[in-house]
Design a protein that fits this description.
It is built from eleven helices and no strands. It is mainly α and 187 residues long.
C-alpha cells in the first residue's frame, strides 16, 4: 500500500523542495532573518518575472496542440517518424528563439501531443546545442564567424544523435525497471 503511494510522488519536486527549504533554514540559522528575507524578496521578484514567460510557453504549447492535429505531430515527429522526425524536431529547436521558460513547456506539450521522447530530446538539444538565435546575438560578437561556423558544424548532428539515443529501447531496460515486468501481488 505504501509503495503504491511512493510511486506517485514527484521525486524531482521533492528533491528541489528539500534543497530549497534546507538551504533556507541554513541561511536563516547562520545569517539571520534579514539576509533570509532579502533572498526571499529576490526570489519572489524572479518568480513574478518568470511567471508570464512560463504561462506564454504553455499557451504556445496549447495553441500548437489545437492548431496541429495529433496525427500530424505523430506522423512527423512521433515514434515512427525515423531520422526525418528527429531532424525536423532538431531543426525546430535550432530555429526557436525562446528561452528555457518557453522551450521546456513546449517540449512537454509536444510529447503529450504525439511526439516521442527522441523528438523531445532532439528539439531541446537543437535549441540548447545549436540555437541559431544565441549564435547570432551572443557568439558572433564575442568569438567571430569562424568560431561560430566551426561550433555550428560540430553541433549540428548532435540533436539527431541524441534523439536516436533517447529512442534506444535499452533505456527502457536500464532506467525503467531493468526490463523486468512489474511485480503484482496476487489478489
Amino acid at each position: 500500500m505504501v509503495i503504491g503511494h511512493l510511486k506517485r510522488v514527484d521525486w524531482g519536486l521533492a528533491l528541489v523542495m528539500a534543497l530549497s527549504f534546507g538551504s533556507g533554514a541554513w541561511v536563516l540559522w547562520h545569517e539571520g532573518w534579514g539576509v533570509a528575507r532579502g533572498i526571499l524578496e529576490e526570489d519572489a521578484a524572479l518568480f513574478f518575472s518568470i511567471l508570464p514567460k512560463v504561462a506564454l510557453g504553455c499557451l504556445i504549447g496549447a495553441l500548437i496542440r489545437r492548431l496541429i492535429p495529433r496525427e500530424t505531430i505523430e506522423q512527423n515527429i512521433g515514434e515512427g517518424s525515423g531520422l526525418k522526425g528527429l531532424a525536423i524536431a532538431g531543426l525546430i529547436g535550432l530555429l526557436f528563439p525562446a528561452g528555457p521558460f518557453t522551450i521546456f513547456p513546449l517540449a512537454a506539450i509536444l510529447v503529450t501531443s504525439g511526439a516521442d521522447r527522441g523528438a523531445a530530446v532532439a528539439f531541446i538539444s537543437g535549441w540548447l546545442l545549436v540555437g541559431i538565435n544565441r549564435a547570432i546575438i551572443w557568439e558572433m560578437p564575442f568569438f567571430g564567424m569562424d568560431f561560430v561556423l566551426f561550433r555550428f558544424l560540430i553541433s549540428l548532428p548532435m540533436p539527431v544523435l541524441l534523439g536516436l539515443l533517447a529512442r534506444w529501447r535499452g533505456f527502457d531496460r536500464v532506467f525503467i525497471g531493468n526490463g523486468q515486468p512489474e511485480r503484482r501481488d496476487a489478489p
